[in-house]
Amino acid sequence: MVTASWLVPFAALCLASLVTPLFHPRYLFPFSGDFILSLASAAERIRRRAPTVFVLLALSYAGCNATSQSRAWYHPDYRPDDLRGAIKQLQREWVPGDVILLNAGYVYTAFAYYWQGSIAWMGRLPLYQGQESLRGPVVLLAGSLAGPPSLGYGRPEADFYRTTIAEEEAALEAAMRHNRRLWQLRLYDTVTDPMGELRAYLQRQFLLVADFPIPGPSFARLQAFAPRMEALPCPCPVSWGGQMLRSCAEAAWPAGPEHRGVLDIHVQLGEGVQLLDLRYTVRALAASGAILWQRDGPLAGEPLLSQGVQAGTIIPLRIPLDPDVVSSACISLGFYTVGDGGIADLPPSPTCEKLQLRAPAQVL
Length: 364
What we know:
Blueprint: H1 2-17, H2 32-49, H3 51-74, H4 83-93, E1 98-103, H5 108-114, E2 121-124, E3 138-141, H6 165-178, E4 181-186, H7 189-192, H8 197-205, E5 206-213, E6 221-227, E7 238-240, E8 245-252, E9 261-269, E10 278-285, E11 291-298, H9 302-306, E12 314-321, H10 323-326, E13 330-339, E14 342-345, E15 348-349, E16 356-357, E17 361-362
């Protein structure tokens, strides 16, 4: 029986490999039967010859296993990567026009399991063909820049595939021409991209606007990138606090008023602005002036502050809009500072009439 516990799993692996090659060490788990049988055989011999020793060994074995299981489930050193929490946060922040890059691409199984809702398109990054994230996200699966050309056995359905940095750069540039923001879920990317070529490209080409560490042993991160802009995308920006800030805003429901909308805000910094103190406020107002919904936040988080943004930099904000709350309301945008002297609003200085936004919304 012990011999069979070795030969049968080995034969099964060989037969299965004729159809789908099995090459990962985890596929050795069928051989665990031999270890269990050997342990049981030894335990039975000890029980017959020395029952007291058998009881002591059995209690020790059970205690060690219980301690190991307790540490595996509850000790922080063994906690798994919190992909469920990361994808829930991503789902809260996602708005139409956001592309999602999974880097490495083979973690797509966790994304597909935890993402609640439709996915517009999911596929290998070099195969991107201009799809837009409207009714659901476009999900791009990054490949390996380090493996051999035969990685994944050249099969189009394989989770692992070889690509080049030129292919990935071209695909990302195309994705950002058709969309507005890129979310990157980084996990195991140091394996597929050990030289950091894709990470360097993203830092060089785009503006890092959000960076959230994901609890767990793999140092995963959820990051958001936006295109670098030379000028505000509107002919008539509004000035705030004199010349501290200039802004444009546009609200839309790209997939229809029954789906989540988005308020796109672009803010250009003036001279001498203290980014650390600046906050934005977005409110949905009823006809009576009552506040139906409100969201406040820092104009720039730690990622932007660490990049040392200068005067003239354009900071993009994408605020999710719930159609159940704001579809029949006006949207009010404001900025204020928080410092030792308390909260101080920045007065607007419109240079044109109020900006009319797509969908029943308006900047006041």
